[in-house]
Amino acid sequence: MNSLYYIAIVLFSGMLCAKLLSKIKLPNVTGYLIAGVIIGPYVLKIVPQDAVKSLGILSEAALGFIAYGIGSEFLLKNIKKTGKTVIMITIFEALGAVLLVDLAMIFIFKQPLPFSLTIGAIAAATAPAATILVIRQYNAKGNFTTTLLQVVAMDDAIGIIAFGISLAIAQALIGGASTSLAMAILKPLIEIVFSIVIGFILGFIFAYLGKKVQGENELLSLTIAFIFFAIGISIKLNLSTLLTCMMLGATITNLSSNSSRFLSIVDRFTPPLFIAFFTIAGLELNLSVLGSVGVIGLGYMVFRVIGKMLGVYIAGYITKAEENVRKYLGLALVPQAGVAIGLSLVAEKSLPPEYGQAIRTIVLAGTVIYELIGPLSSKIALIKAGDIK
Fold first, then answer.
1. pLDDT tens, 295-347?
2. CB-based contacts of 210: which residues, under 8 Å, 6+ apart?
3. What is the mean pLDDT of the chain?
4. Could you name the CATH architecture of 57-270+292-384?
5. Nearest one of 273, 277, 258, 245 to 216, comparing CA atoms
6. Is the pLDDT confidence value at 69 over 80?
7. 3-state SS record for 21-75
């Protein structure tokens, strides 16, 4: 079948399932994910496995627009007010998850140190996409939402660095270290810096050209072109598409005198793209892996969430953050998907099979659970914080 046929099926099923689940107050993104699971290659097989691979370009495009939207929240005057709090919370929630999963694997589940360190580092990563869509759907606004957006934007950068260090230590313990600890730290830092620099340069050029554009249709075309170019050049240079597109949005927000014009214009283009993105994510969720994770897999899922919630609370207490941030922000950081899956693939290739394959299976199973319950937990957190009326 033609790819356009499968895109149509994805959009129809995503909209229908979201509409049905809205009757019981579940977020739209949960409906999209469940629709993908149902029509995907592991249940009804309406969309086969080879078709799922051909739809990957839609997922890459959607992530770029999501990151662009996150970056737009990085207004310097707001960062000056919340910068210390956001940085502390991000570090504590990411490393809190890493530390708690590490300790649980070593002392409760009696797992080898290389395995424990590697899977613990993956626990830091979150998935901003689901959280963003929940915020958009319910038009959540307030200090809690602003803090949440800034935390999820920086979270993966810390997670990638923590993973590089942990994997290098794990390989050294096994005796198969292919790189030094210094390089393990330096490599992700170089990736982050180059992604930010390229995003800033593109944003600077975009802000200049955007001033000369008059019509909305022309501005929309220019915006899409810049976001697609940011995604493409990041993939070409093996950089982070998320960070590049975030920096593109952040630069526009701070350099343009009429940034809302640049940012609101994409809302005319993104709704079907986001439906497709999350429904395609559902296509890739293999429920059969849930049966093979065992107690260790459940431990990973539980202790990761506890670590994030505990880290947020401690950092919030130290920085005297608002009470609703301390109490509920960790609940909004449950989703985990793309970055974690990517890191688990690196772990599978870099460690012996008895470690790498187990880590891959546990992370994939965790993704299934986190992606299905994550949007609901984000919604609950936003309601408890008072940002969804």
1. 999 999 999 999 999 999 999 999 988 999 999 999 999 988 777 888 887 88
2. 219, 222, 252, 256, 261, 262
3. 87
4. Up-down Bundle (1.20)
5. 258
6. yes
7. HHHHCCCHHHHHHHHHHHHCCCCCCCCCHHHHHHCHHHHHHHHHHHHHHHHCCCC
Q: Which of 16, 136, 122, 6 is nearest to 65 (CA)?
A: 136
* Rounded Cα gap, residues 221 and 326, in angstroms: 41
6-23 mean pLDDT: 93
User: The tokens of 236 are what?
Assistant: 């070409």
Q: What's the predicted TM-score (pTM) here?
A: 0.81
In the chain, where the domains are located: 57-270+292-384
- What whole-number distance in Å separates Cα of residue 42 and Cα of residue 283? 8
CB atoms < 10 A from the CB of 110, how many?
9
Both tokens of residue 285? Answer: 């969720």
Q: How confident is the model at residue 181 (pLDDT cuts 50, 70, 90)?
A: low
Contact 166, 142 (CB under 8 A): no
What pLDDT is stored for residue 368 in this prediction?
82
- CB half-sphere exposure, 309, CA atoms < 13 A: 16
CA torsion angle 378 381 385 386 (round to 10): 60
Residues 118-131: b if buried by 16+ CB within 10 A, e if exposed = bbbbbbbbbbbbbb
Q: What is the mean pLDDT of residues 374-389?
A: 91
- CA-wise closest residue to 95 among 312, 300, 242, 274: 312
